[in-house]
Specification:
By secondary structure, the chain is an alpha/beta fold. It is built from four helices and ten strands.
Length: 206
């Protein structure tokens, strides 16, 4: 039996690693004495490997099929926008959008204009404003795009754990005390229903 090290973000040595716990508020140092390590990696914490530096890949023969399961079919959704975890730009909306219709009329057009993926806070997903696969956060998807736009998102710890490693974070919120501004590189205290249309007008000019 081997110990699994989950969500590793740093390698300190051959047997020592770092991983976030408590929604990313604490970084835990883990040492494994196992000869072989079983590790899951937070890919957004690492830069792409340069050519020639890739680790060796060993082919492992599959175990014999016990015949307990059977593949029936595969139904994949059609993606009209970039996939959330690999997108260079993510536009996310929060509970302040107030409805699914507002997500469609405010967030999605901005994302399409920027060629971005669409994300959402857990509060927005729980309220039915956005589908589950758009959720960004500790219990959703971990993203680290070049640009993350948080619109109408207060910045709960759970959400920050999923996007705070983004290269540039832009926040639009009418509450100047919202926690999202603590991680934002650029923050605008404004009504999103005014700010986003104005931003769309400026983008249309370029």
């Amino acid at each position: 039996m081997l110990m699994q090290i989950s969500d590793m973000i740093s390698v300190l040595g051959p047997d020592t690693f770092e991983r976030p716990v408590f929604a990313g508020n604490v970084i835990e140092t883990v040492r494994s004495k196992d000869a072989k390590k079983v590790i899951t990696v937070r890919t957004t914490a690492f830069q792409p490997v340069l050519a020639g530096d890739a680790a060796p890949i060993e082919a492992v023969a599959p175990a014999a099929n016990p015949g307990l399961t059977q593949f029936v079919s595969e139904d994949l959704p059609k993606m009209e926008r970039p996939e959330l975890t690999s997108a260079h730009i993510v536009v996310s909306g929060g509970r302040a959008l107030q409805s699914r219709d507002n997500f469609k009329s405010v967030i999605e057009p901005l994302a399409d204009k920027l060629g971005a993926a669409v994300g959402a806070s857990r509060a927005a997903v729980d309220a039915g404003y956005a589908p589950n696969d758009w959720q960004v956060g500790q219990t959703g998807k971990i993203v680290a795009p070049d640009l993350y736009m948080a619109i109408g998102i207060s910045g709960a710890i759970q959400h920050l754990a999923g996007m705070k490693d983004s290269r540039v974070i832009v926040a639009i919120n009418n509450d100047a005390e919202a926690p999202i501004f603590s991680v934002a590189d650029f923050g605008l205290v404004a009504d999103l229903y005014t700010a986003v249309p104005e931003l769309m007008q400026e983008l249309s000019k370029s």
